[in-house]
Design brief:
The complex is a heterodimer of chains A (172) and B (103). By secondary structure, chain A is mostly helical. Chain A is 72% helix and 0% strand. Classes of the chains: A mainly alpha (172), B mainly alpha (103).
Amino acid sequence: MAIGCAISMVAQRNPLYSAISLIGVFISLACLYVTLSAPFIAAVQVIVYAGAIMVLVVFVIMLLNIDQAECQPRRLRSLVPIAVGLAAVLFAEAAFMIFFVQASAATPAHTVSDVGLTSSIGTGLFTSYLLPFEITSILLLMAIVGAMSLARRGGLIPPQAQGGETGTSNPE
Amino acid sequence: MNMAPQLSWYLALSAVLFTIGVVGVLIKRNVISMFMCIELMLNAVNLTFVAFSSFFHDVSGQLFVFIVMTVAAAEAAVGLGIIIAIFRNRESLDVDDSSVMKL
């Protein structure tokens, strides 16, 4: 189901249908996380990805909706088989690595443990991974400030900067 | 036949999803579609992390998944802000129209 939704995502030409297919991929991945005994990650996957990020994406798609959904690629059309070929090479490498690892080391059997529970994740997050946690919080703060300064007004080039350029070009 | 889920199944699914994401980034023209394909690649790597973490009984993989999700959320916010700014300036979402930085 995940593969089908992913192929549908790439094959759709309208970005809105593509976004809905991507939500299908996220939900099916959350189901896989549950089967991998990681319920906390599954819940975070549904909340963060299928909730927050996709709401943002769908909102931007609807905000910027212009009639170029049926726009065929004008040039570089001949490069699509090359792209697919390169992706096939990448997948062949990944498959080779998977079967090489499988042949070399005996992978342990999957048994139920308390690894995926919320308490163990919290314990690990606040003891041995405290520094990455703090760095992540700094990163989120930077993202908030960056998004606010981008979305405030004027976009990438604020009007003050343009005025400043014309002001400096005038000799005093 | 043993039908218990093997580790290689999850790794194969992750490889397939990552490859689909790479194909999408390479052949898509819309900025938002490329953005969603990048999200798909991040999710493929997350699936690998969770699979290894669950099969090797180590909690580190799921912590990394948590951090990757945080980075993806930050990237989504900033990336969509940049997309809106580019759309305001250029009235287009095609990457070929944005191939030069100057207006």
